[in-house]
Specification:
Radius of gyration: 19 Å
Shape: globular
Strand order of the largest sheet: 5-6-4-3-7-8
Helix content: 40-55%
Order of helices and strands: EEEHHEHEHEHHEEH
Strand content: 15-25%
Structural class: alpha/beta
Length: 247
């Protein structure tokens, strides 16, 4: 846990969640309100991600995980999907150029089977660079779905059992967690959803068992450092008992 000074209301030190996850929602509506194509909203949203990631690192967050493209988002128009993938490629090219200087880690989480070979090569490069550094880690979920992730992990465990490596009775929660895309990451303490929608949308279903949620009407491209401060302040007011009884 890190500490920071809340800039929105007081100077009282607040506990910063070790791991924050964000459903980056509202890009299309942000663009439509301005008479712009939806692709312009995604471009604006990617800049918001850069800014929020920089701020998270500055205030002591260790892990930031964002929901960028779901397994259901392939249903969108080919033009919109293509534009989003181009943004991913552009961002990863830029990240490769800066990761070494900034000593940050970048991980892409999700099912890579439908991702282009070019994008997979960039992802492999960021993975390799990330192995050389400790500290802040940004995770971008691409072609990700919580149910798909659980099915993927279940198949992996079933394959181990079929090969005789282990038996079904040996399965534990920790073992199953290690088969998820998020293996090695702590569960998020705080999950934020901008845009006014109040649902989890198939995001981190296993990992969010005891996460605190923060919902806001602010569309993702308009989400700023002050709004993140508000989310963290709300997190600090929660009574987290993890199924226990308050003493």
């Amino acid at each position: 846990m890190g500490m920071f000074k809340n800039k929105t209301k007081t100077c009282k030190a607040q506990t910063v969640p070790r791991h924050i996850a964000i459903i980056m929602d509202g890009n299309g509506r942000w663009a439509t309100k301005r008479g712009l194509p939806r692709t312009a909203g995604h471009a604006a949203g990617s800049e918001t991600f850069r800014r929020i990631a920089t701020y998270c690192r500055a205030i002591g967050v260790e892990y930031l995980t964002v929901y960028a493209f779901s397994t259901e988002n392939w249903k969108r128009s080919a033009e919109e999907v293509g534009a989003i993938m181009q943004l991913f490629e552009k961002y990863l090219h830029e990240a490769i150029d800066t990761m070494a200087n900034d000593h940050i880690r970048l991980k892409i989480l999700g099912d890579m089977s439908r991702i282009s070979p070019e994008l997979r090569a960039l992802i492999a490069k960021t993975d390799e660079i990330s192995t050389h550094y400790d500290g802040f880690q940004a995770n971008i979920c691409i072609n990700y779905g919580g149910r798909d992730e659980i099915v993927h992990a279940a198949k992996a465990f079933a394959a181990r059992c079929a090969s005789g490596e282990c038996s079904p009775d040996e399965l534990t929660e920790d073992m199953f967690s290690d088969l998820l895309y998020t293996a090695g990451l702590p569960d998020p303490e705080l999950i934020i959803r901008p845009s006014g929608e109040v649902r989890v949308s198939n995001f981190l279903l296993w990992q969010s068992a005891y996460s605190e949620y923060y919902f806001t009407d602010v569309l993702w491209p308009d989400f700023d450092e002050k709004e993140l401060d508000r989310a963290i302040s709300a997190f600090n007011r929660r009574d987290r008992r993890f199924g226990g009884v308050k003493k």
